[in-house]
Specification:
The chain is an alpha+beta fold and about 350 residues long. It is built from eight helices and 19 strands. A six-stranded mixed β-sheet has the order 10-11-12-9-3-13. The chain has a six-stranded antiparallel beta barrel with strand order 14-17-16-15-18-19. Strands 5-6-7-4-8 form a five-stranded antiparallel β-sheet.
């Protein structure tokens, strides 16, 4: 799968990488300069790995209310929320964002989770007046991230949405109607733009031109990966999958504990009533200069107590950091764990997420 911006990326010297089936830019220049642009100014990202499904029909509210973990009935047009779709056993099918429009909802999801999400939702559609439309071929997702992201929008004569996370509205960029969403993918202030695919390049180049005075740079996956790990943002297919319970991933913000029944709710309620889960996605500060690898095991003494899912060298902290699952007995910040890398022990200290707090 390629992005509608492939030609622009190639013409401007981007280093492309196949990220689990999607060819996207790893970097456009120096990844650390791109990282600093987002931390200090603004960065523009191609998020073609995000896609949307449009949900319409007179039963759309009640159907999604009974399927997703968050309170869909509470949404009004222009608002949104994080949510999850679970199996009957409480396992994570997809993490997603829900955006309410006047007569429909948009479900925003990692494209690699879209097929499972659609299959699960379709399986429970019986007599409901609900239609699911895949919008992947119609739209591309861009992200404008950084402390000066709002100034870039204002330079395009756009009043930014907000201040609530996932507030959204339509706007005009390069004579194109786009949907702008208040959303952070990096831990910094930011927005996402849903852009018609045929106009993706003109919107992209307009944003770069108007944002140049604010230090806006195109940013690739290498810098984005560092930024999101520092912010403690898990990615589907790397830090979470269909083997994980939603509470293990630390997604309590995506769950309503008062709305009533939804798919997988009994499992969530039992874990909540018990007061703990067996393991949880945690931050890890790595001693030394070399990051561990995904899948590396975590030990406390002779006991295996978890594993690494993501790791990078952090420019902010000057040493490697990682995300990983840790058993509940060892979750206290400051707990030291061991990673064995080819017979060489590495020390990992448990820290609270996000790292960038």
């Amino acid at each position: 799968m390629t992005t509608p911006l492939s030609a622009w990326h190639t013409a401007h010297g981007a280093v492309l990488v196949d990220d689990r089936g999607i060819v996207l830019p790893a970097s456009f220049s120096d990844p650390e300069a791109e990282y600093r642009a987002v931390r200090e100014h603004a960065g523009l990202l191609d998020l073609t790995f995000r896609t949307q499904v449009c949900v319409t029909g007179t039963d759309r509210v009640s159907f999604l209310q009974g399927m997703l973990t968050n309170d869909i009935k509470a949404l009004t047009p222009g608002s949104g929320c994080a949510a999850a779709l679970l199996t009957e056993q409480g396992r994570l099918v997809a993490d997603l964002r829900v955006y309410a429009l006047d007569t429909s909802f948009l479900l925003d999801v990692d494209v690699r989770a879209q097929a499972s999400m659609l299959e699960t939702l379709s399986r429970f559609l019986v007599a409901d007046d609900v239609e699911l439309e895949d919008l992947h071929a119609q739209w591309v997702t861009l992200a404008l991230q950084g402390p000066l992201a709002a100034q870039v929008l204002q330079a395009c004569n756009i009043v930014p949405p907000g201040p609530q996370e996932f507030q959204h509205q339509e706007a005009e960029v390069a004579d194109t109607t786009v949907r702008i969403i208040k959303a952070s993918d990096t831990g910094e202030d930011g927005y996402e733009l849903l852009v018609p695919s045929p106009q993706a390049e003109s919107v992209w180049t307009t944003l770069l031109q108007r944002g140049a005075r604010w230090g806006l740079l195109p940013v690739g996956l290498t810098a984005l990966n560092i930024l999101r790990i520092e912010a403690g943002i898990p990615w589907y297919g790397i830090d979470m999958d269909q083997e994980r319970l939603v509470l293990e991933v630390g997604m309590a913000h995506a769950i309503s504990f008062t709305k009533g029944c939804y798919l997988g709710q009994e499992v969530v309620e039992r874990a909540t009533a018990r007061g703990h889960i067996n393991r949880k996605l945690s931050g890890l500060r790595i001693q030394g200069h070399i990051p561990p690898l995904s899948g590396d095991k975590l030990y406390h003494g002779s006991h295996e107590v978890g594993w690494i899912t993501s790791a990078v060298v952090s420019p902010r902290f000057g040493h490697p950091i990682a995300l990983g699952y840790v058993r509940r007995e060892y979750l206290s910040p400051g707990t030291q764990l061991r990673i064995d890398r080819h017979g060489t022990p590495m020390i990992a200290e448990v820290v609270a997420l996000p790292f960038s707090r």
